[in-house]
Amino acid sequence: MFVPRSVSRYTRKVAASTETRGAKQQELLQVESTSEEVSKSASDSKQISTQATKPSNDDIKILILLALSDYSKSENGRFVPLSFLLPHLDAGAAIAVSEADVAKALRASAADALDVRMLISYSSASPLGGYEVRRKDIGDLWPSSKLDEAYWDERTVYLENIPMRYQSAAGIAQMVTSLLDAADLRVQHVRFLSHHWDPQGSVPKRKGFALVTLSDPQDVSALLSAYPWDSSAKRTDPAPDERGSEDSYWQAAREAGLRVLPKRWWVALNEEYQAYRARLLADAARDATTHVEAHSARMSVDQNGKDEGQTQSPPASSRLMLSSPFPYECLVLARNVHPDTNKTTLRKLFGHAYTDGDAGIDYVDFIKGTDTCYVRLASSYDAQKLCMYFTAPLAQNDGLDKEGCQPSAGTAPIKLELVQGRPEELYWEKVPEKVRAQAVRRAFELSESRMEVKGGEESALGENLESTGRCGKSAKRPSSPQPSSSLSLSSPFPPGCVVLVHNVHPQTNKSTLRKLFGRAFESKSRSVDGSLGTVGESLSKAGVDYVDFSKGLTSCHVRLASPAHAAVLCAFFHSSQIFQEDGLDDRGMFIGGEMSPDATPASLRVELTQGRAEEIYWEKIPEKVRLEAVRKAVELSRQKDAPSPPAKRARLG
């Protein structure tokens, strides 16, 4: 075919011009995208960025169909630029996909539902892009004026317990369509709900619940009967053998416990919940205000430095017992803390009230973004001391301020209130029973310990704080309760049964160390002034209760069955210079002979863990294990064949 030269040149110019405009458009879109990201980052630097993901072709198809649905009230029957739809496809998800990728995916998976066309001629400065899309069923579109709010509310349901892997907009639409056994998409819109703590105007995070608008009221009825809100109601979804294991949507929904509620019922329940929450907050605020004056009078200090409130004995109903439902007067409400702070920072800030750190602070109950928190203290004494410390004005300069500073103009100081009465009961009712019982036990032990302290150190709290000042050397806080030297079943842990061992081989293991420490109880290897007699191999296994060792470390803790076993272990390694030749050495090598002193490794060094270090170690052990260790130590101490602590250092046989 003959083509005139002039026409050929014109065609090449048009092609070149099109390519140039396409390149300019891509460059413009990249610049606009970059500027938009920079602007978004600058406007909200606290928002956590999410990693962009590329959706599948099916996800792109569903997201575009949702964007062009009847609910969206998009341009009926007209083409819509893809550049307008892409930023609004999936709220809360960062989607890394270009217009060309979307057009390619739609032509591959949605050719029967969508028309996609490329703009051939458009202004190079236009931000609309080069692709447009519209639905093919333009003849079935309803006039947007007839689709009012009541129309869509009838077709909207609340979904709860949505499976984790289907919690995106596309995933929910695919799952619901599959559960309805429909070939075409049956979802019109997916709305994620925000939490009352979320900042105003923020994008709701994906959770296990959402409001889903369906295409037909029959779909609503089908979902409500198949996945009823009441778990005891009869379900109409197919049985496992009828549905088949290949249906992953049905299987995931059944395992997650998916349940559905009509929107009108959800609105009623939500209003009831909001009213109940407001009533609780109002009651708590009223009760807290009632107790402020009584608390202030009890904590007031006269000019002579005497704490008037401490002279009154507590009422009989408030005396702490092991059977108490919760520890009385151990809860403090802190106001005006920094909203961007955290539990660790607050713990260190409140720990300045004590001379021995934050041992008196049991737990800081704080939620990010609020300016109040609850502090659970180990005892009522610790709660009173914390309140006394914050009588002087103190504030947080920022969220990471753990030292505190003088409040500046316009900054409210941190205020602490002792929570009592009904607010105290309401708070502890929400705490798990096991945690409450542990708190009662600890507070009871601390109160019993301080009752034995002569001089009434607790009654002199106000005088000590007044005389020394907040930042000076304050009076020494009573130490934590020490376990009684006479072991009994009521002991919190078996005293004198933990040994710290240094210089073990970093590549060893618990089994090897257990055999190595068992040498201390072998009768053939040594005798301890004849006091042990013949112990035998069975005692070597029973003496070492547990070896607390982590690979790569050169030290470990050894829990022994009784204090006598711990004393024997220490005596053996004090008298014997033994080291591990390698990680699997369970017999040990004696230092001496022809070994060069420079080439000799450090011998195993043992020390009995006592005092506060012993308490800290046992606090990390589960209560069930502690009680079992106490029971075992008591039984061994009552047996005649249990080894007793040696009178002097052991000698190698």
Structural features, described:
It is a single chain. The protein is of the alpha+beta class and 653 residues long. It is extended, with a radius of gyration of 36 Å. The strands form six sheets. A four-stranded antiparallel beta sheet has the order 5-6-4-7. Strands 9-10-8-11 form a four-stranded antiparallel beta sheet. Strands 14-15-12-18 form a four-stranded antiparallel beta sheet. The chain has helices spanning 5-43, 57-67, 82-85, 99-109, 149-153, 169-179, 217-226, 240-243, 248-256, 263-299, 343-350, 380-389, 421-429, 433-451, 461-468, 510-517, 537-543, 563-575, 611-619, 623-638; strands at residues 80-81, 114-118, 131-135, 156-160, 187-191, 209-214, 259-262, 331-335, 361-366, 372-377, 415-418, 498-502, 526-527, 544-548, 555-560, 578-579, 589-590, 605-608, 651-652. Among the domains are: 57-135; 149-231 and 251-266, 2-Layer Sandwich (Alpha-Beta Plaits); 331-444, RRM (RNA recognition motif) domain (Alpha-Beta Plaits); 498-525 and 539-593 and 600-640, RRM (RNA recognition motif) domain (Alpha-Beta Plaits). Mean pLDDT is 73; it is low at 6-21, 27-50, 293-318, 453-485, 523-540, 593-598 and 640-653. The relative contact order is 0.06. It has 20 helices and 19 strands. InterPro entries: La_xRRM, Lar7_xRRM, Nucleotide-bd_a/b_plait_sf, RBD_domain_sf. Pfam families: xRRM. It comes from Fistulina hepatica ATCC 64428.
